[in-house]
Amino acid sequence: MVSEAPKPPTLRRSCQACARGKRRCDQRWPRCSRCQARRIDCEYINVPLTVTNTPTATSSSKNRSLIHTTTAHTSRPHQATTPRRTPTIPRLLPLEITKGYSAPVITFLINSMREYPVTFASEQKTHFIHPDLWPSSTPPVPIQEAYALCKQYASSPSQKHRALLHPILDQRSRSLHRQLTRASTFPDLLACAQALLLIQCIVLLSPSPYSQGIGSEQEGKYQESISAMLLDLGHRLWVQAPVQLPHTLSPRRAWLFAESVRRTIIVGFMLRSVYSLRTRNYSVRTPFVDALPFDVRTGLWDAEGVEGVELAEGVAGGAGLWGPSEGAMVSLHGYSSMLEQGQVHGIGPFAGLILAACRGRRVGEVAFPAVAAS
Predict the structure, then answer these.
(1) What angle do CA 292, 297, 300 make, to 5 degrees?
(2) Do 336 and 255 share a domain, yes or no?
(3) Average confidence (pLDDT) over 353-367
(4) Label partner for 58 (CA 20 to 30 A): which of 149, 217, 231, 245?
(5) DSSP-assigned states of every residue in 34-49
């Protein structure tokens, strides 16, 4: 009896279900998008390469000093300064980590980020856009245009009227993305990125589907191009962050600028994760996100002014609270771990978002350690 010859090895990366159905497989792990949508088992002959076509960061550490440190401002431009060193942040690895969250956490994240355009329309301020950042009362053109669209969106009487704005928002998003790739200065790049995030919060997290217009056939479906765009946004800010800010900036303005860069990058990756959660029920993250620097002095973002804060703290002269502070900068992973372990009291809205996005937990679920009796 002649034994059956063994089947030759195959290099096929598609899952079994997509191969049998002769459908294109996006090779997601542990389940591809098609199997996820159909709620069926997803089996691979070969483990897929779960990577994205993400450019590797090639800039040296000096290009990232702005977002590593609390502020890049110095009042003595002719005197050599040695910035405080922080742990080296690894390159942007082309690796994805998938993680599922509970339905209440997903709903909380979607609703919270959906409020960014509405909040900006009423206050001209969000967790990542500060009205005192720009040198005059007139913000950059992308911010002004985004404000007008947010205002129109927030004042719409119904979801039907809001849906009519989507073709305009789609067109503006494309325009901002083109400007993002051609920005001549870093402030222009930052303004385009912030405006684009505001508009994408409306486009991606709208509570009702498009009624008509561009993109209606993609409503509710995950688009790799959108995820890649949000990834590119954060990556560009990270790579092109300036080495040092002008010495003409006040310590407060310098801190606000550096903090705006850090927060805009974090919100960009957060929106990418929430978009994946909304369309696929699992989050897409990279190790690079966990290594992002974070300033634990979140209360400074809402401080009314430098004089009042410094006098209240008994600081005489100098940069006061706005200057570098030992122990103020930690990684985003380290900060979210502190939140989860109950080491941060008085958790604000932005910190609550970070806890939910990074750890999949609500503030009410945090068990604070008991205070030892004296």
Answers:
(1) 120
(2) yes
(3) 89
(4) 245
(5) HHHHHT----BSS---
Does residue 309 sit in helix, strand or coil? helix
Strands 283-285 and 97-99: antiparallel
Total number of domains in the chain: 2
The first and second tokens of residue 232, run together, are 């590119």
Closest CA to 132 of 271, 322, 350: 322
Residues 248 and 346 in one domain: yes
For residue 131, give both structure tokens: 């009205």
CA distances from 316 to 255, 298, 302 (A): 18, 22, 21
Q: What is the enclosing helix (H) or strand (E) of 283?
A: strand 283-285
Q: CA-to-CA distance for 64 and 191, rounded, in angstroms?
A: 18
Kindly state whether residue 286 falls inside one of the protein's structural domains.
yes
Helices first, then strands: H and E counts in the chain: 14, 4
Q: CA-based angle 102:106:112, to the nearest 5?
A: 145
Alpha carbons 141 and 135: distance in angstroms, whole number: 14
Q: Is pLDDT of 18 > 60? A: yes
Cβ–Cβ under 8 Å, residues 119 and 128: no
In a domain, 125, yes or no: yes
With cut-offs at 50, 70 and 90, classify the pLDDT of residue 311: very low
Per the structure, the complete domain to which residue 290 belongs is given by 97-208+215-300+327-365
Claim to verify: residue 112 and residue 257 sit in the same structural domain: yes
Give the DSSP H/E element, type plus range, for residue 350: helix 349-359
| Sign of the CA dihedral running 129, 132, 133, 136 | positive
DSSP state of 211: S
